[in-house]
Amino acid sequence: MAWFVKTETFCRPAAELQEALAAHRRWVEGLRASGVRICSGYRVDGDGRPGGGGLLLLEASDYASAEALVRQDPMLLSGGVEWQLHRWIAVCGDLTLT
C-alpha cells in the first residue's frame, strides 16, 4: 500500500460549501469505518484561520485506485474546489492514522 495526498483549494466561499463539507465528513467517516486509512482536514493560515482549502491523506494500492476513490469525494463532486493528487513517498519517519 502507498500513501497519497490530495490538496484542494476552495473556488467558492466556505459558507457556500457547508453542505458539501458535511457530506465530505460523512464520506470520510464511512470510508474509515470500512477500514480505509484516510484522514482529512483544513489548511489554515499563520493566524490559525481556516477557509482556503483542505488536505486529505489516504492509503491505496496504487495511483489509479487513489484517484478513483478521490473522485467520489463530495467536495470534488460539488465543483467547489480545485484539487491535485500526489503519491507521497516517506523518506524518513513513520505515519500512523488512528
Characterise the protein shown here:
This protein is 29% helix and 36% strand. It has one domain (2-45, 53-88): Dimeric alpha+beta barrel (Alpha-Beta Plaits, 2-Layer Sandwich), CATH 3.30.70. It has helices spanning 18-33, 63-70, 74-77; strands spanning 2-10, 38-44, 50-60, 81-88. The chain is of the alpha+beta class. Strands 2-3-1-4 form a 4-stranded antiparallel β-sheet.
Distance between the termini: 17 Å
Uncertain segments are: none
Please summarize the sheet with the most strands. 4 strands, antiparallel
The percentage of residues in β strands lies in: 35-45%
Strand order of the largest sheet: 2-3-1-4
CATH class: Alpha Beta
The chain-level structural class is: alpha+beta
> Radius of gyration, rounded?
13 Å
Q: Roughly what is the average pLDDT, rounded to an integer?
A: 91
Give the SSE order as H and E letters.
EHEEHHE
Indicate the percent of residues in helices. 25-40%
What does the overall shape look like? globular
List keywords for this structure.
98 residues, alpha+beta, Alpha-Beta Plaits, four-stranded antiparallel β-sheet, 3 helices, 4 strands, 29% helix, 36% strand
Detail the topology: elements first, then pairings.
Layout: E1 2-10, H1 18-33, E2 38-44, E3 50-60, H2 63-70, H3 74-77, E4 81-88
Antiparallel strand pairs: 1-3, 1-4, 2-3
